[in-house]
Design a protein that fits this description.
One of its GO terms (biological process) is chemotaxis. Keywords: Chemotaxis, Hydrolase. By secondary structure, this protein is of the alpha/beta class. The protein has three domains: about 180 residues, Rossmann fold (3-Layer(aba) Sandwich); about 40 residues, no CATH class; about 80 residues. It has eight helices and 13 strands. The longest helix is centred in the last third of the chain and has 39 residues. The radius of gyration is 25 Å and the shape is elongated.
Length: about 325
């Protein structure tokens, strides 16, 4: 019988402290491989392997494409690459971003669920938005064990709460307790493997044939969006492969909207500058009527720009769903 020997961990904002606490509690002889995705800027180097290497007894380093999966090691996703599992090998890809990130958590979780099923333990730590919730759902559906950081402890509770909304989680606890828990689970007997669902046949590039168009545009590429089949949490993808969970899609749309508004504001400012330049030119050529007309256009456009800038400022001050306290019935 197979044993639980694959641990996958996802974190975002506030995740370095949470990861350090988790890793510090692992046993040095744990019979499992640990895979970590932390959201980081795509072009920035990551110091996470060194931090985790010093935080606990297991050696930690950036994963390398094609390397063999071995127990007792921590494999960290490098910047600008998805970390996924393909059989007993690690794969690094530059496939489209998911939930606005590369590396993203969901690709690692889904690939682990696909290839290792009940041997997987999935862990969601502190972070904003909802990356990892859909992937944790895949792990649970394939018979794996699910672990989530207590939202009350997490510096940023959105990701833990999203995971709790998506999955009947096996363990909810603080990071200081996670290391000992994972050490106890590692090596224990796993249940029988279950067939991978159709959506898991290709965790990165499944086709959109047969999927339902939703009338939305992808924030990353402006392509049409389709709804992925899911037993609980709605998820979306575009034709080229960008994937979004609901909260991440909302944030992506907000970012795209703000960018569009700034483009509009810049266009209005350009119109103001051009109108005033034309007004000065007309005055210098002794054409006061034309100069006055250009000045009126500049003033009207400037007022429109002021209104638009106020709208942008109000949007950025609004409390969105991430800052709203959950209702009592939504608390876990």
């Amino acid at each position: 019988m197979s044993s639980r020997d694959i641990i996958v961990v996802g974190a975002s904002a506030g995740g370095v402290e949470a990861l350090s606490g988790l890793v510090g509690g692992l046993a040095g002889n744990i019979p499992a491989a640990v895979f970590v995705v932390l959201h980081i800027p795509r072009r920035a180097p990551s110091a996470l392997p060194g931090i985790l290497d010093r935080a606990g007894p297991l050696p930690a380093r950036h994963a390398e494409d094609g390397e063999l999966v071995l127990p007792g090691r921590i494999y960290v996703a490098p910047s600008d690459h998805h970390l996924v599992l393909r059989g007993d090998r690690v794969a690094l890809t530059t496939d489209p971003t998911q939930n606005g990130h590369r590396p993203a958590i969901d690709p690692l979780f889904r690939s682990a669920a696909r290839y290792f099923g009940p041997r997987v333990v999935g862990v969601v730590l502190s972070g904003a938005r909802d990356d990892g919730a859909a992937g944790l759902e895949s792990i649970a559906r394939q018979g794996g064990i699910t672990v989530v950081q207590d939202p009350e402890e997490a510096q940023h509770p959105s990701m833990p709460r999203a995971a709790l909304d998506a999955v009947e989680v096996d363990h909810v606890l603080g990071t200081a307790e996670m290391g000992p828990l994972l050490t106890r689970i590692a090596g224990s007997a796993a249940g029988p493997a279950t067939p991978a669902p159709p959506e898991a046949e290709d965790e990165m590039t499944d086709p959109v044939n047969g999927l339902t168009p939703v009338g939305l545009s992808c924030p990353a590429c402006d392509g049409p969006m389709f709804e992925l089949r899911s037993p609980s949490t709605p998820r979306f993808r575009c034709r080229v492969g960008h994937r979004w969970s609901p909260e991440s899609l909302l944030d992506g749309q907000t970012d795209a909207l703000e960018s569009a508004l700034w483009v509009a504001y810049r266009s209005l400012q350009d119109k103001v500058a051009l109108s005033r330049r034309m007004a000065r030119s007309a005055a210098e050529r002794g054409r006061p009527a034309s100069s006055s007309r250009y000045e009126r256009v500049a003033e009207e456009t400037d007022r429109a720009g002021t209104l638009l800038r106020g709208l942008i400022d109000r949007m950025n001050r609004m409390t969105d769903y991430r800052g709203v306290e959950p209702l009592p019935e939504d608390r876990r």
